[in-house]
Design brief:
CATH topology: Rossmann fold
Number of helices: 8
CATH class: Alpha Beta
Keywords: Hydrolase
Structural class: alpha/beta
Shape: globular
Order of helices and strands: EHHEHEHHEHEHH
Distance between the termini: 19 Å
Organism: Pseudonocardia lutea
Protein name: SGNH/GDSL hydrolase family protein
InterPro entries: Ester_Hydrolysis_Enzymes, SGNH_hydro, SGNH_hydro_sf
Strand order of the largest sheet: 2-1-3-4-5
Strand content: 15-25%
CATH superfamily: SGNH hydrolase
Pfam family, one: Lipase_GDSL_2
């Protein structure tokens, strides 16, 4: 086991924060920290994500994370950009800027693409096509901007959208945020990317 703690920072919105999880340990950060520990790393977890954050808010979170000297960062953002109709090019540019700043500090970065909001129960069926198109466009732009800036892109939004559509129990009681089971599914999907980025040569 590597004796040096891996400083792992999670940035983004309510999904990154863990809103909807029944217990703090069920949130995304703690679940992924557990995956890293199972792989033999000692992990020092810091969650600087803020519920309600859009991509433009990442700059402030990166500033908060800077003193931590993170080895690895996960960014999960985009749902609020979609909900607030932020132009996808603007949202993607803000994500790219955050990745570049983290990479300048030597932090390995995993950027997860936005969720597909078309499968959220509250979305009227007549609007699902439009919402899915908007989600796909943001995901595409996020992936391009994050990869160009040096992140490992976890393009999992579409895959997870289908999983949530098939299993209503993955949503919490508010029918928008994930439940503890939903976070388990998201963490399992993101874990291979996080483990890859945690390798010393990845940074």
């Amino acid at each position: 086991m590597d004796p040096r703690p891996l400083r792992f920072v999670v940035l983004g919105d309510s999904l990154a924060f863990g809103t909807g999880a029944a217990r703090p340990a069920d949130a995304l950060g703690p679940r992924l920290a557990a995956e890293l520990e199972a792989a033999g790393r000692t992990v020092e977890l810091h969650v600087v994500a803020v519920p309600g954050a859009c991509s433009a808010d990442l700059a402030a979170q990166v500033r908060r994370a800077a003193p931590l000297g993170a080895d690895l960062a996960l960014i999960v953002v985009g749902a609020n950009d979609l909900a607030r109709l932020v132009p996808p090019e603007r949202a993607a540019a803000a994500l790219g800027a955050a990745v570049r700043e983290l990479r300048r500090d030597g932090t390995a970065v995993v950027a997860a693409t936005a969720p597909d909001l078309s499968w959220v129960p509250g979305v009227p069926p007549a609007l699902r096509g439009l919402v899915q198109a908007a989600s796909t466009e943001l995901q595409r732009r996020q992936a391009a901007a994050a990869e160009t800036a040096g992140a490992l892109v976890a393009a999992v939004g579409g895959e997870l959208g289908l999983a949530f559509a098939a299993e209503p129990g993955l949503f919490s009681a508010d029918r928008f945020h994930p439940s503890s089971a939903g976070y388990a599914r998201i963490a399992a999907t993101l874990a291979p990317y996080v483990l890859e980025a945690a390798e010393p040569e990845a940074a």
